[in-house]
What does this fold into?
Amino acid sequence: MIKIELADRVKNLPPYLFATIDKMKQEAISRGVDVIDLSIGDPDIPTPKHIVEAMKKAVEKAEHHRYPSYEGMLSYREAVAGWYKRRFSATLDPKTEVLSLIGSKEGIGHIPFAFVNPGDVVLVPSPGYPVYPVATLFAGGESYLMPLIEDNAFLPDFKAIPESVLKRAKLMFLNYPNNPTAALAPKEFYMEAIELAAKYDIILCHDAAYSEVYYDGKKPLSFLEMEGACEVGIEFHSLSKTYNMTGWRIGFAVGNKDVLAGLGKIKSNLDSGIFQAVQEASIAALSTEDSLLSGIRDTYQERRDVLCNGLNEIGISVKKPKATFYVWTKVPTGYTSATFVSHLLEKTGVLGTPGVGFGAPGEGYIRFALTQNAERIREAVGRIKKVL
Ligand SMILES: *Cc1c(COP(=O)(O)O)cnc(C)c1O
It folds into this structure.
């Protein structure tokens, strides 16, 4: 047996808290506990039928069985541009300003390789999607964490970033509607971010995975709706959360063509594109009737109301999110986010995600995902009530 040693970049990975949670969950299940898992950011609702039907037809076509094109089928990129036009009134050239991705996680994970040299800084929101700092680490960059705190509406405070850091910064990740805090960003915030990016030559990467999961009819903004956005950055998007397609692995990035060309260079050397049948089904997805999507939103809204009203009634104060399928709330005093999550699992079988798993500033919070039906969520609230 040879000596097998992990590379430093893998050895230096922060401990994966979610693996610990999964272990706790499996242990509870093996003890016979009926676990209500509200820790998963993966829609439980199936992909709409017309998309599945389009996939069935597409998979029969022999021309789709060969290698796809690197940048994605032009017809898929045209469908993306059409969707952006209808949804955000943003005009995109499908040939140069749209890049297909194998899920937005893939693009987010690869973009630092295109632009970050060892020692460069990447500005990363914390708590946040763990891929931002890990991708930065893999590329040899240094993450500078921008804390998202409640007193600042879970928006980073750009004025708190030292000038010396801004001068070394190459990329900045932002994500609204936000996972895990469920916060939205107003227009002024995006304008401030664009101004900062322009002043310091920072490539702005906005992750808009949840732009279509919103409540009370109030649509979130796209970064690309802002003046000057295309000069400083790109927006990552995904069909995963909008159309319940997490397993299909398809997304896209739009915006600045030089940034997309850089990311495309990395991708053409590493992957060989998305199965064309999936791209064809995704064209059908992007023209989904709004009534169907508003039905999905209504389902989440009902769940949100059951959870938030229920928790508020039993004395756990929560604010209703305006977007995303997450509820982000403080744990009771006397607990850390991790001890509260294990206490809750132990006493009630209800599983949430400890806020600290998304970064140190998430300590003191728990995230509940609305990815179980209203009945199960009602049951979860009932169980929590009994142990309070
Ligand atoms: C789910 C999620 C994504 C992307 O998922 P893909 O399935 O890879 O498109 C990206 N960012 C955030 C914040 C997410 O929660």
About this structure: The mean pLDDT is 96.
